[in-house]
Amino acid sequence: MLKLAGLHVLIVEDEYFIARSIARIVEEAGGKNVGPARDLQAARDLLSGSEVDVAVLDIDIHGTDVYPLTSDLAARGVPFLFVTGYDVSGISPNFQNRPLVTKPFEDSAVLDAIVAATRPAA
Amino acid sequence: MNREEKKRYHKLMQLELQHRLRNCMASVRAIAQRTYESSQTLDEFFEAFDARLRAWGLGQALIAKSGDRGGELVDIFADQLQMLGGNLQAQFSIEGPAVTLEEKAAEILALAIHELAINAIRYGALSDDAGRVEVRWFIDGDDLMFEWRERCAAPVASSEASGFGRELLEQGLDYTLGGTSTFEFTPEGVHFRSAIPFAGNIKSLGGN
Predict the structure, then answer these.
(1) pLDDT tens digits for A50-88?
(2) Is any Cβ of chain B less than 8 angstroms from the Cβ of A90?
(3) Is B29 near chain A, with CB under 8 Å?
(4) What are the angstrom distances between the C-alpha of B32 and each of A24, B38, B83, B88, B164?
(5) Could you report the predicted ipTM of this complex, rounded to two decimals?
(6) CA distances to A92, A100, B87 from A96, in Å
(7) Domains of chain A
(8) Residues of B in contact with A87 (CB under 8 A)
(9) What top-level class would CATH report for the domain B38-205?
(10) Relative to the CA of A39, which of A18, B151, B161, B189 has its CA 20 to 30 Å away?
């Protein structure tokens, strides 16, 4: 069984080739890509128009923080994780308990973090 | 700044530097991956990857040099053509007002110009001395219109730009800049156009 079989994944990432490389990881694990979204507006449009099971967020999107988007995600009950150039000390304290993958990443680390984010809290 | 403030400032700077470096490494890795996917041999991979890395590096150097982290379009052009051969400039006509691009836009346009030029050297107007390339840019409403038109001496067959170049020009550029680009083959060579929104991409008009 593929690790992300049937899962709808929204990638929010402003760098094209990085978005593409995460999208590839998702597809190879059987997931479906919604997006990717190049900015928060695109992410909101996709959220309201399509099914999303989990979101993979870069933190710095064209110089603005991705954090406001997390309220939209929470409102829809969509879990999320971060794939970012920041390590945990660079992340807002409110979100330090979320799965985090620091760039440059290994494919398996991204995959594991997506799985971890979608696992129901114990 | 007192001692405490200085310490905090340094810590912040360090964090930001780490952030940039890690993002940069992730981009390089993703470019390597994509180049690998569109290469038939190891030699082909290395040649293309090495050139892309140098093109990217030149864009970065220009941004770093500018002081306010931007790049003038005409300078990006000059750097990229210089890298590929000193005489290439002679085959170009370049026309457009002074435009300074934001960092991200400068970075991706350096790569885009590199891909256009590499493709023209391999298959298009720059494959012999008689070909010409007309490049122009101008302002249209809230967009910067950018155009690359090849005038090959002899008609060219619709050649296949490398998977990477084509993808960057048709998708990567628009994804990064939020614009609209078209890449087409004509009997005279490649005709590429891009509408680049000012917002987020253009730092200033009229030069420094």
Answers:
(1) 999 999 999 999 889 999 999 999 999 999 999 999 888
(2) yes
(3) yes
(4) 14, 10, 20, 27, 10
(5) 0.91
(6) 7, 8, 54
(7) 8-118 (3.40.50.2300)
(8) 18
(9) alpha beta
(10) B161
